Amino acid sequence: MKFTVAIDGPAAAGKGTISRQIAARFGFAHLDTGLIYRAVGAKVAEGMTPEAAAEGLVPEDLERGDLRSLEAGQAASKVAAIPAVRAALVEFQRRFARQDGGAVLDGRDIGTVICPGAEVKLFVTASPEVRAHRRWLEVGGDASQVLAEVKERDDRDMNRADAPLRPAADAVTIDTSEMTIDAAVDAACAEVLRHQRG
Ligand code: CDP
Ligand code: CDP
Fold first, then answer.
1. What is the pLDDT of residue 197?
2. Of 198, 181, 130, nearest to 17 (Cα)?
3. Which ligand has the minimum distance to the alpha carbon of residue 20?
4. pTM of this prediction exceeds 0.95
5. Whose CA is nearest to atom 25 of ligand 1?
6. Molecular function terms in GO for this entry (predicted)?
């Protein structure tokens, strides 16, 4: 059985949490594609060229412990604007999406570029202020700096020429600004069930 759920949206919208819950509930494999760009950004920070870092990426690179920081997020969004980096990562993501048993992928361009034929496409979003507050609860530090970084990354991701962040024409948008995470997960699962029943 091949079944792909594509989940896109800006930072701290709830994509990862929703994706993990969908994967657990429906028995699908899950790929956090942001981790791929974070891992490439980390290798570039260590001196590799962006192209070599993307072409040489191995699954273990996604397991390093320093990928969740704000700095790693900024480094990711910088390398993610380079077309050769994105191109080197397409096939791995597409193979993952079409594995037997179903898959959920979350990122920025899954519904638009990586899996335009996905059975379910969700665009998960929330206001910058709400998202920055959620991220601040996770990482701490200076709240106004967290908000500035979220906005800077949104801006870079939405305005790049290659695979900009935007909802696919046939995506269902879930605005989680005033939703609990449980309500957001329920809304997302309802979409999967709707498509499974045809
Ligand atoms: O993957 P993404 O960056 O889009 O977001 P996430 O890591 O799933 O969520 C960021 C944080 O916001 C997590 O701590 C979630 O539990 C929280 N969250 C929330 O409190 N309410 C929501 N409706 C969605 C996410
Ligand atoms: O968890 P959060 O939403 O903060 O970020 P992430 O999903 O880990 O993504 C980090 C960065 O990688 C994003 O700001 C994008 O620049 C880039 N990215 C991308 O370009 N395409 C994807 N499919 C996933 C992430």
1. 80
2. 181
3. 1
4. yes
5. 14
6. ATP binding; CMP kinase activity; dCMP kinase activity
